[in-house]
Design brief:
Largest sheet: none
Helix content: over 70%
Order of helices and strands: HHHH
Number of helices: 4
Distance between the termini: 45 Å
Radius of gyration: 15 Å
Number of strands: 0
Strand content: under 5%
Structural class: mainly alpha
Length: 85
């Protein structure tokens, strides 16, 4: 079980670095969502289910939806798709 926790911590570090270097805003949001989901798994392994549920609901759920809505409102999602073509 300790090895699994180290693997999850490694993924957390990778997600943090990947968000820093990502130039695409949509990819950054998706990486942030995965960071929150991995963190909620770690909270479950630390036997803290209340924090795990909160992290999954707020970190991966509500915050990500707000980020998506913000990108849509400022028309950043459409502009990035046009630049990729």
């Amino acid at each position: 079980m300790l090895t699994f926790q180290y693997i999850l911590l490694g993924f957390l570090i990778i997600c943090g670095v990947a968000v820093s270097f990502s130039k695409n805003l949509l990819n950054s949001i998706l990486i942030f969502m995965s960071y929150s989901l991995i963190m909620s798994i770690i909270w479950i392994l630390l036997e803290s289910p209340d924090l795990a549920i909160t992290e999954a609901a707020v970190g991966a759920g509500v915050t990500s939806v707000l980020f998506f809505v913000t990108l849509k409102k400022i028309h950043a999602m459409g502009e990035e798709e046009k630049k990729d073509e």
